[in-house]
């Protein structure tokens, strides 16, 4: 393996298990975030993970990184991606944990940071750069009371969901692999340790900016903002106020992301500001969930006793979080104004940019929902039609994914194709009344039923990561049978395809699924 300690420096050869006959990881090097300096991070090796083994591996992520997929079968793969080899790295090339702060459940939590995540470095391939991070790599200076470990259960869930979200077309961090170990880890019960190798262009969060604002480190705040602009939003440099333009990019990308979440019934579960990506990515998969029966008030995180992060609250919380980001960036705004005006004008500018969330989110969600119900054109009353569907779905707890998928089978001419979706509603009369209104609306569309169904099936997934599917894979993995993890991952890589051999994965959840709970404990 070759490892370069900086973006443009000589390679430092490290003898290690990743230099194998199958190939090498020779494009891993120091990233541009690390070049910001020690005020942003702490370097340390990962804690040893005893006798690690591979639980899951994503070949398409390996290909994205320029890695030979055959590496996953080499003896040193699990050792490397558990962080065990980092003990032998030069001190100035060690992985790092970054510091940030944030609001958790609406309360300022002060300094947080990567309490169990270590960034190995950055990979450049095919003109793109990605950071590789080990989640579960051991204690760091930011672990507070935590043990720095992740467990097999949550690691499998993150691996599966990050890949599922990507193939749904939703911006997300990715997961190269999961490695496990028999090392015991105590959560609500005794579990075993695991590490997820996460992949992202950047792991910078809203909380990074909040941290340096709270500590009155305007110099570091500016360096961080410059890093994000230069690396990801270079067009902001042409704006009258580059830092305000950066806020605008975060507003727009976050609005788009939440619209995508809402359109597939995804609940994040813990939308703290330290779990919000500056790039508008889904990040930090913890107590997430795709809804089965639709409930606008659904809470997927049983630690969220007040329902702050319920499904219907996600747009509002995203907007609130963006206010926190704006406050963190505030010292950088308004440099074009004279000193007497700067403070007031900067606040006004920030408020104006934040309003862009509302003007972006609503149309983005409306466009997605129109596509989900198969409307090619826009007519007055479309919003009311969709909202009425949600009302009766909520009243009947109709399955979210199956309702929209089966709606494609309904005919615009008669009720002959209603049964697959109608049978999801206990109140058949309420559905029939809505279906009649829907058919009347479809009469103004030029597409025939087949063309409309094809379009709807390209935006309404048949397969999502339901909790019971993940739980089945987890239980088998606890017995060292990882076949279901890979089988399920394979199904989720083609969420819009019929895949008749996996029809059972698209069915209603079994009765026992209603007792499943997920929490912040992972």
Automatic annotation (TrEMBL):
Q: Classify the source by domain of life.
A: Bacteria
The record's listing under InterPro entries reads: SelO (IPR003846)
Q: Which cofactor does it need?
A: Mg(2+); Mn(2+)
- The main enzyme category here is transferase
Q: Where does Mg(2+) bind?
A: 275, 284
Active site per the UniProt annotation = 274
Q: Record's Pfam families?
A: SelO (PF02696)
Question: What are the entry keywords?
Answer: ATP-binding, Magnesium, Manganese, Metal-binding, Nucleotide-binding, Nucleotidyltransferase, Transferase
Q: Which residues bind ATP?
A: 113, 115-116, 135, 147-148, 198, 205, 284
**What does the UniProt record say this protein does?**
Nucleotidyltransferase involved in the post-translational modification of proteins. It can catalyze the addition of adenosine monophosphate (AMP) or uridine monophosphate (UMP) to a protein, resulting in modifications known as AMPylation and UMPylation.
Protein name per the record: Protein nucleotidyltransferase YdiU
The organism is Paraburkholderia diazotrophica
